[in-house]
């Protein structure tokens, strides 16, 4: 590792890679990631980041996110049912105890679950290895007990990491991480063990960014989703691409926003002949089984392979 590059993946030019074909010859693998989260009202203090942007007690921030668990998720589930779309749930696993009704409803729909940490107010910063292992093991155990599923994906809580995060989740036989944003196709990551795939997630079409940071109108957000989809679908004719829509019910499911979001889903699902509607685990599994080895071979053949693994000096 150098100070300019964590060496988590090799540079791999987008054009002229081995062609990816999704099941059925589909051009684009599409998945939706509802973030089902729990924000503690008074979380433990982390020295690197406050739990809430406003001073405590922040009853406004807490209750806004609580609206998502009380109203938003149910509205979003019903909309996704209408278009026969399954979710891959980015889950704060403590929600299995706080609101089991939501977990049961998602499991009944055959949705996938992956870990987004315990709470979205407990960050990975400053964790030692034993603490981070405990979070990962808790995630696996809690979701398995609640749903019967063995989770295969990881999105670090509030996108906070340590230098050892990728190596640990690979060691625990996770198949994919959503924490990197370097590509529109899956890519093998450089971990000490396992076969960990960087799964295309998104900040660009993530509703936290579009509604929070960019203050888009609902119709503008719907237009962005359609144009993002159209371009990735067109490029998928050359080699299969991936599109994810990361969602937060406290934002996208508001009454004045859900209609324009439905317009985007109607546009996307009108392309059933060209799109593989899948879960993230299904996409990662297909890539690991069919394209892992040839991707590594192509990276090496192009002279892009570098020695070592991610943060190898820092994680030692």
UniProtKB/TrEMBL annotation:
One Pfam match: Polysacc_deac_1
InterPro entries, sorted: Glyco_hydro/deAcase_b/a-brl, NODB_dom
Alphabetical GO biological process terms: carbohydrate metabolic process
Ranges for domain NodB homology: 70-173
SUPFAM superfamilies linked: Glycoside hydrolase/deacetylase
GO MF terms held by the record: hydrolase activity, acting on carbon-nitrogen (but not peptide) bonds
Family of the protein in this entry: Belongs to the polysaccharide deacetylase family.
Job description of the protein: Is involved in generating a small heat-stable compound (Nod), an acylated oligomer of N-acetylglucosamine, that stimulates mitosis in various plant protoplasts.
PANTHER family: POLYSACCHARIDE DEACETYLASE, POLYSACCHARIDE DEACETYLASE-RELATED
Name by which UniProt lists this protein: Chitooligosaccharide deacetylase
